[in-house]
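ok trying again, last paste got cut off:
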Amino acid sequence: MTEFRPGRFEILPIVIKNLLIINVLFFLAQKTVGAGGMFNMLDVLALHHVKSPLFQPWQLVTHMFLHGDFWHLFGNMFALWMFGAILENVWGPKRFLTFYFLCGIGAALIHLTFLWYDYNGLLNDFLALKLSPSPDKIGAFYNNYGLSQSPAADLLVKNYLADPTNTRNVEQVVNYISDVTYAVVSSPTLGASGAVFGVLAAFVYLFPNTYIYLYFFVPVKAKWMGLAYFGIELFSAIQNSAGDNVARWAHIGGGIVGFLLVITWNKKNRRNFY
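nice, full thing came through this time. structure:
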């Protein structure tokens, strides 16, 4: 299990080939049908917080076929082919496809768990404010959730605080805060990265000493590359830097699910598993 040297190796096995085609077709649909306003693919197919009005159970799967831009698509598909083709050759198409979707769904569930934790305070504060608006609650929301950075919010909150008994002022500021909360909670998550991280984790576990050529020139063993990549994602997720819109916990979740699956399958089926 040191290095991968297959006897019969398909450069583009059937599942990998079809996943590449489907992802490219979805991306083209995003740039044509979605861009034309005929059908909002992000609202319907991307993954949303369970408290968002846009959330639907099928998004646990469909978000894996959407991508933000060409380089997001290219990076995921290149990694899927690079590591996934070897796994599909070893496992066969049925097992690899099962593994891929389990990693993607597992990554989505872990991501939703952390979204719930991240947005729990926001949602509780918003519900308390909506049920019983008061200068203290609106002022706290204004300061805690960055509304001071918006001139529109600044004006509405100032008008309200100047005359909190005015029904129109109350209605305007609550509606604005409702729109802000809805926009935050309904931010879409998309991409195959969670599933691809699972594929990478399985590859690193099975072929730890295989050399990966970074930038096509620098040889690094898969185990060191995998550990470094996972460490960077974990550090970035814990830091939770402002402006970082990457779903780090989905990446980490996919890697963990892939790692646990490959260990479990290896223990249960040592004869047929690589």
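cool. DSSP finds eleven helices and two strands in the chain. The two ends are 8 Å apart (CA to CA).
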